[in-house]
Write a structure and sequence with these properties.
The protein is of the alpha/beta class. Helices cover about 45% and strands about 15% of the residues. It is built from eight helices and five strands; from the N terminus they run H-H-H-H-E-H-E-H-E-E-H-E-H.
Amino acid sequence: MKLPSFFNPRSASSALPASQDKAEFVQSMFDEISPRYDLVNRIMTLRMDLTWRKYAAQRLGLAPGSTLLDVACGTGDFVRLLRSMGHFCLGIDFSHGMLAASDQKQLIQGDAKALPFANESFDGLTCGFALRNFVSLDEVFQEMQRVLRPRASIALVEVARPRLPLIRQAHGLYFDHVVPAIGSLISN
């Protein structure tokens, strides 16, 4: 499967270890930061993460009552939003801590590269800010495709480096220096 042109896995995951070490690191990290994850997200993105999710959910173009899956659901932001739009939504996440920090029901612990659902189970799928955390994007994308019905909608929300040089430089300063400092102050 060809990755989108805007996605550069080398730069997106350079701070994370490879293979199984990466999976264990990511799970442990999210278990640890889960109690303050939503607060950190809101501060780091200046609450734009909520706007980005809402935009993506609206672009799915699904009728109310559709069945959706949110992969790497974390504390359930996408799940909460999709349910408020009249959809039935399940969430799955690798981190026990993130699920425990959620106020949402019908969230399960599991691995995105081995989704515990039958083929063609969902009308749509969302995944927010998680692609850089997966060990194998090919396996995750294959699983996403497997559980989606024909003509299903998918929304993947991710942070990307802007192309315009001045904006790219400001973005880099913010996400490479300010965001880690904020994260360190608010959580471990």
